[in-house]
Structures are given as C-alpha cells and as structure tokens.
Amino acid sequence: MPELPEVETVCRDLAAEKLTATIEKATVKWPNILHNISPDKFKKQIKETKFLEIKRRGKYIHIVLDNQMHLFIHLRMTGRVAINLDHSKPNKHEHVVLYFNDGRSLRYHDTRKFGKWSLTKNPEEVIGHLGVEPLEKEFTLTVLKDLLLNSSRQIKPFLLDQTKIAGIGNIYADESLFFAGIHPESITAKIPEDNIKRLHQGIKKVLRQGLKNMGTTLGSSETNFYSVAKRKGRNKEKLLVFRRETQNCFNCETIIKKLVVAQRGTHICENCQTLFS
Ligand SMILES: [Zn+2]
C-alpha cells in the first residue's frame, strides 16, 4: 500500500506534468471509487475546471481546483495514476479518467478497486481527522512523547493510526521500530525516553530515505507500487527488516522473524528490538 513516500512521489510527478489545461470531460467506470459523490454529480462538478495545486496530506493526493472544490485521491492498496498523451478509451482497470483540453488525460488505474476519490468544497471532511505530518516541523520529539504517553496501545497499531501520525503504513512502521530498537508489541506509554528519541529520528529517517528513493516497489506484478509513467521506487533494497523474514539481521545476524501484530504482517529482529510492557 502506498505510504507517505510513495504518495509524495506521485504528487511530485503529477505536479511535474504541469497539468494546467481545462478538464473537458470525466468518465467513471466503477462508481464505488467515488467516496462522497454520485458519478453524475462528479462529472458535472469537475467539468470545465483546472488544477491549481497538487499537494499531499497523509496518504491523500490533494488537488485544489479553480472552482473552489478539492479533489482527493487515496490510492489504498493498488491505485495508481498515469498521464496519457491521448484521449483513448479507458482500459479495464482504468476506473476514472479526466480528459484535458490539451489532448492529455489522467488515468486512475486500480486492479483491486479499493482506492477512493472525493470531491468536496470542504477539505476538512476528508482530511480533518488526520494527525501530525511526520516530515513537517510540527512533528517534534515533545509531540511524539505526548502522543505515546497518552496512549496505552501497542506501538505498531499506534504508528498505523492515521489520526495520530499521518502517512505511516506497514513498511515504514516496521523500519522505524527496528531503527529505534523497539519491539512492535511494546506498550506506547512504557517506551523509555531514549527509545522514543530514536523512534522520532527513525520515523523521519526511513520516510526521507523512502522519498529520496521515490518509494518502495516490492515486486513486479501489477499490484505493486508504481508512480506516474509506471516508474518503480528504488527503496526496497534499503529495507532492513520489512519482508526480510528468514534472512539475517544486518546488525547482529539473528534471523529476521515475521509476526502478526494487530492483524498486520510485522517484521522484527528479536535481538535488536526490546519489548517494553
Ligand atoms: Zn538484529
């Protein structure tokens, strides 16, 4: 599932396309992709608009339109965006298409169809619930400490909770916890100060590294992460624990294990990561 580095990569790639033309038409083949709006209303409201700005909040692509509406795209499991240089008919996995009057089209491709598009006047409806952005200045050590001390959950589901910290998913949660030497089943309020410091550094470090490598593409099938122009991310080879079960830890050579924590496959080195409970 695309996380902060992958979604930010898509936003930057989309912005680089300089989509300044007017949308002359939209098609919606799979209405369930639309979150808070009917296909007819969506097509009507997006027609004759232009993109003013493309940004990211959490795992959402946020496109500001010139009619005071906001378009949000959440890629969920297998969503991806492509820009075609023509107005050809959508293929079977292209569920929403925006046709621009410069001859190009934006294609939303999603094999598993879990992605969501929202169109609204009020951005808070879609992103109002999100927590702190981990790569912004507002994400200080004090903020993280307060969040952890006010919770008594396991740290892994805490990191995945978008209302606390926005943008972290399974890959970067496992990598951050390995960096910080924290077992994913540790109770948030029991984590010592020193490990909280390392977690704060670790979250920023693994997300920045993911972003620098333009995201993590784990395999080569259609369901993996691809940015615009179907470009793969290069971050997979930088991962220290995620999907490395049965291989040796780079620190201590212990075999990396896979556990299930809060219903999510979780990768750890039992020697390097301490359980605080
Ligand atoms: Zn280790």
Notable traits:
single chain; 277 residues; alpha+beta; N-terminal domain of MutM-like DNA repair proteins; Helicase, Ruva Protein, domain 3; 2 domains; four-stranded antiparallel sheet; 10 strands; 26% helix; binds zinc ion
Description:
The structure is a single chain. Helix 6 (170-180) packs across helix 7 (193-212). It is elongated, with a radius of gyration of 20 Å. The protein is of the alpha+beta class and 277 residues long. The chain folds into 2 domains: 4-127, MutM-like, N-terminal (N-terminal domain of MutM-like DNA repair proteins), CATH 3.20.190.10; 141-268, Helicase, Ruva Protein, domain 3 (Orthogonal Bundle). The protein has helices at 4-16, 39-46, 124-127, 141-149, 155-160, 170-180, 193-212, and strands at 23-28, 51-57, 60-65, 70-74, 79-84, 94-100, 105-110, 116-120, 257-261, 264-268. A hairpin with a 4-residue loop joins strand 6 and strand 7 (105-110). The strands form 3 sheets. A 4-stranded antiparallel sheet has the order 1-6-7-5, with helices on one face. It contains 7 helices and 10 strands. Residues 249, 251-252, 254, 269, 271-272 line the site of zinc ion.
